[in-house]
Structures are given as C-alpha cells and as structure tokens.
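Retro notes
What went well: the complex prediction finally ran end to end.
Inputs used:
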Amino acid sequence: MAPEKARRRPVQARAQVTYDAILQATAQVLVAEGFDKASTNRIAKVAGVSVGSLYQYFGNKEGVFTALIDQVCDEQIALLQGMAGAMLAAPLPVAARAYVEALLATHERDRAMHEAISQQAAHLGLPGLRRVQAESRRVVRRYLEAHADAILPTNLDLAAFALVGMVQGMVDSAFFCEGAAAWPGLAEEICRVVLRYLLGHDAAPA
Amino acid sequence: MAPEKARRRPVQARAQVTYDAILQATAQVLVAEGFDKASTNRIAKVAGVSVGSLYQYFGNKEGVFTALIDQVCDEQIALLQGMAGAMLAAPLPVAARAYVEALLATHERDRAMHEAISQQAAHLGLPGLRRVQAESRRVVRRYLEAHADAILPTNLDLAAFALVGMVQGMVDSAFFCEGAAAWPGLAEEICRVVLRYLLGHDAAPA
DNA sequence: ACATAATGTGAGCCACCACTCACGTTCAAG
DNA sequence: CTTGAACGTGAGTGGTGGCTCACATTATGT
C-alpha cells in the first residue's frame, strides 16, 4: 500500500539502462495492452530483463507506476516552464493562444498515455497531477502579475486558478468527446473565453 | 472483457433487495477500501449475500461496476434535467448560478464516489461520463437557444460545449486541489467567467 | 589477479481472486 | 399440498500474479 522506497539506486551505466527500459516498457504495455495486463512479469519481459531486476529498483508494483507518472509529470512541467519563459512579455492574445495550443498538443501527443495513467489517477497519479496543476497556476499567475494593469481580475490567485481550470476543462472535454478535438473553431473559442474573462471583450486584431 | 449481459433479472422482491444490496456494497467498498480491494467475494460479504448470488445477477465482475456507474450517471442526468425544467425561463445570471451551485453540490455529496469511479473511468466509466457530458450540453444548448438574442456566441453547439467544459474544469480543479472548494469567491468567479463569455461584460445587478 | 560489490536471472512459492456447481430454501400458482 | 421455478449458498477449482531467493555474471578498486 504505502509507496515503498526503491531497493537500490542504479549507479553503473548498465543499471541505468535497465531502469530506463523498465519504465519505458511500463508505458508501452500500459498503452498497448491496458492496465490489467501490465503485470510485473509482463513488464519485465517486454523490457527484456528479469522480474528480479525489476524488484531491485522498485520496491513493489506500485513503485513502478508512481516512478513512471512522476517522470511524465516532470516532462510536462518542464515544457510548461520553458513556454512560460518565452511568453512572459508576449501580449495577451498571443500568450493565451500559445497556452491553449500547447495543452492541445500534449494531449494529442500522448493521449493514450494520459488515459491509461488517469485510469489509476485517483490512486497513484493524484499527487503528480496536482503538482502539474499547481505549477500551471504559478506560471499563469506570474504572467498575470506582469500584465496586471491590462486585465479585469484583481485577485490574481483566483484568476490563475480559474484560468487553468477552465482551459483544462475545455481541452479535456474535447479529447473526451471523440472527434471534438479536431473541431475547427475550438482553439479560437477557448481563447475567446479566456480573453473575455480577462479583458471583458474580445481582443482587437492587430 | 466484453460487458456480458446479466444472467437473471430480479423478479421477486427479495431478489431486488439482493441486487440493490450488491450495488450499494460495491459503492461502499469502493469508497472505503479502494478499487483493488473490491473483489467479488468482498463485495458479496459486505452486501451480506454469497458470491453465488452476485453471479446470478451480474455476468462478471465488470458487470457489477458498469451497473453501478450507470446508476450513478442516471441519477446525475435526472438531477440535471430536473434543474433544466425549472431554469429554462430564468435570466442568465440566475441560471448560471444555479448550474454552478448544482455541480459544486453533487461534487461535494459524493466526492469519494466520483474519485473511486474515475479511477476506472478510462476502462469502464467512459461511456457513462460521456452520456452525462452529452446530456449536459443538450440541456445547456436548449437554454442558450431560448436566450439566443441576449448572448454573443452564434454557434450554440460550440458555446454549449465550451460552457460545460469550462465549468466542469473549474469545479473539478476546486475539488482536486484540496481546500479550494471552500474558497469564498469561487462560485462567483465561475459565474463571472460564464457571463463574460456569453455577454461580454458582467451582469448588471438587479 | 583477487576480492568485493553491483547487477542480473528465472523457477517457483504463496496468496488471492474470478467464477462454478451441486445442493438447500422460499415463493407463487393451480 | 404439490410442484416447479426463482432465489440463495459457500466450499471448491483453476489460474494468475506479486514477489523472493539462491545463484550466475559483470564491473570496480587495489
């Protein structure tokens, strides 16, 4: 039950290779065959190692999945922060657009991955997903601060919270409802929601 | 794998009692002990019946969960439609407020339930959750039609989609991020988002 | 070269779990 | 009351999967 610590940390190069292979195999099996087929024996076989090796680096089955989820969350956060740096000085319509597109893109990229993980989200993934949301709010809040004189909301914490939630909600809905993600006006509409909330009107075209 | 049909439908009263007890026990075990502890034997024991009885009404384990999810979704949809009838003629700020409060309330009521179910959402719950979202969009769309001359969006399908997604997203975020659900200005802020999207400005106070 | 630690192996143990079946019990109809 | 159908039972079966452990192999320091 409790997330046990890893038995051993990889120190030699070949150990790191094994470790990475296990995580990659976990992702692959999860996406291709579903959670209930993802036994430790199957993961080890796909990774090309023995079960014993798996249990050298992960205390139990749960540990494998939490490690994988952590890795995915770290990537997502890194992408977020990278974008934030490039967008801090950008005007609102541009930044909004970039944020929306980025979220749509990551969803597109590893849709199956997210689905498989969220299958166990309440149990294992929740802390990780919380981290991503918290970091998203932090990034958005910093942007709002820099543009505080141009927007309506004065409670920036609440505004960041609302923004991250609403965009995530619409993007999720789009992928949830098959086919909707490809709707032509979707990204525009999400941006419209954001801009009307922040400005009270649509952005004037340049 | 495939959702097998129930072996037998309860016809006598005591059979219905057994059937209901099984579903209720499933919900209870799911919430109190988590999905992986919810074995058919455990469910039967908590329900106070024998495993054999369980398999008289459900073809397999999956069938128990899908039946439970269907039941929860039906309740949610019924609540939605009931509210829609009462709100069709209401002015926008009132209707928006009612919708938001209703969502917040249902989340509050069976938060653990939703969490446990969404744990298996990708596998079992997806069709049910899709039904709820689709019905939500239909209800919202009907309302928008009735008030089409008072709102900015012209593509009502897209608007309904965006509205349901954004509200759901913000509500989910609130419960996701512990404590946030109790934030004082939360419901107001969600309404503000909705109204600025639909009207382009905040509602004038009565 | 040698010792020692790090890494890798996989057959097998054990516990658990989905599901069955042969048998009892309760109901409803004639 | 009788009869048969609906309902209920729970020990048992087959299979699976998490995890171990005794042993083999490879790297590292001296």
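What we learned: The longest helix of chain B spans residues 61-87.
What to try next: split runs per interface for comparison.
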